[in-house]
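Fold it.
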Amino acid sequence: MNNNTRSAAWWSQAIMIGSIVGAALLPVGALGHRIGLWSFQTAFIFLGGGTLLAVIAVIGGAIALVVVLRSGRVADRPLLYVGLLLGGAVVVLMLAQVGTARSVPPIHNISTDVADPPAFDVVIGLRGPDSNPLDYDAAAIAVQQQAAYPRIQTITSQRSAGDSFDRALEVLNGMGLEIVNADHDGGRIEAVATSFWFGFKDDLVVRIRASGAGSIVDLRSVSRVGVSDLGVNAKRIEEFANRFKES
């Protein structure tokens, strides 16, 4: 039997299967946490395992492909191509996440007013015992936040406090957040954002106060779990600010 008709070797099959399993572990770990099957720590173990399998598939696949091309083993090529493609996609995805994490400070509590951050009310009862604390340590956070996200600032509006409240509520609904408290008299709105894959929850509070003929609006967005938020809380506040200023 010549090389062109030989069946695929076990190691080619192992590389392809390893890459498939590695790629599958990422959504399985994420969705398992989202529906409550396991903790976010367990979900990250799935991610780590999937990434490790992907790295092994890429390294092993690259070496095996050189051998296959030199020896003319045609049957092994499709399996190795699949392994390299899937494994490479996982590695690129995870490297992008690592790059994002390295580009932002390891904080998860972002406020437009670092001297007097908006306070939560209803949200406090929704956060589990393992959630990050809501205390805002200005000495530890403010400098990092202002260096990384200088555009996170108090919003000054010519709208009255009442009109700003209505506009803020409209914006939050448009962003797809779950409104859990809308205190018009107190000028406070609380909402919860849930990530697509993992179901991670971030809590947001909007504080509206009258200022002269207009109003000032402050926001605070806090992740319930994790150390670094990969910049999502700052992006959420920036998105709110941009939408709020429209029309």
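The beta strands are 109-111, 155-157, 178-183, 188-194, 201-211, 214-223.
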